[in-house]
Fold this sequence. Notes:
Elements: H1 2-29, H2 34-39, H3 45-55, H4 61-73, H5 87-122, H6 127-141, H7 144-158, H8 174-208, H9 211-218, H10 223-253, H11 255-260, H12 266-275, H13 279-307, H14 310-314
Helix pairs in contact: 1-13, 5-6, 5-8, 5-10, 5-13, 6-8, 7-8, 8-10, 9-10, 10-13, 12-13
Amino acid sequence: xxxxxxxxxxxxxxxxxxxxxxxxxxxxxxxxxxxxxxxxxxxxxxxxxxxxxxxxxxxxxxxxxxxxxxxxxxxxxxxxxxxxxxxxxxxxxxxxxxxxxxxxxxxxxxxxxxxxxxxxxxxxxxxxxxxxxxxxxxxxxxxxxxxxxxxxxxxxxxxxxxxxxxxxxxxxxxxxxxxxxxxxxxxxxxxxxxxxxxxxxxxxxxxxxxxxxxxxxxxxxxxxxxxxxxxxxxxxxxxxxxxxxxxxxxxxxxxxxxxxxxxxxxxxxxxxxxxxxxxxxxxxxxxxxxxxxxxxxxxxxxxxxxxxxxxxxxx
Length: 315
């Protein structure tokens, strides 16, 4: 297991290099001048050139990139052009709500999808299987913003059960925090649970047809014991893959949900920074999101080794 983790960590080095290069080039391809965005068109040219020189934007792109990477190696992601705070401080304030939202959404999705996926697989072609298929198609096809607006109308406007546009940290006030995250977490969790339901159903159906499962049945084990003790662990491997990939995506990809519910998440921070041409903040935030994504994939690899010990030696 230690060798597996070491190999995965070494493999992240070229990935992070490509991430830094890609985000640097893409943000500089965005139309607009950050100096113009900061000072406006009314400022004189001398002030603009002075600011451009202070920010290093007068240097060639390759010099800017090497300078930025050199600062990253020293643990310095730069300062935001807008707030003049360090990128780590700005992202640190915003990534906590995103992490809490992602974990809450994943908890909801697992609580819904694992029982539903298991039951639809063990009761194939039944009425409940048809309901599970319809639920999965609904969750996959329905856009997140539509689900969000429906939840706001029903539980926020009509029933007044839950807040629709406020955020409270669950560590500061557990009850108010959970209430403020419930609707956005359900919005993200429904789509994720639909994917997990279909993935688990397909994986479990394939696993239940394997020889070792038929052997367990031939020994006289009850169907519940066969599913729980023999089939479930192997069937969960594709589900773990989906959860790992989706967790990384939820950290920086829940932009629409964060805007709809006015959550101070990191995805919303990146979009605002792009519109403001805040190059250091965009570059640093995307790099940190990539690190979280890579860490989630590493956790997936470790869980693989627990679910299937053969992976520890064959990977």
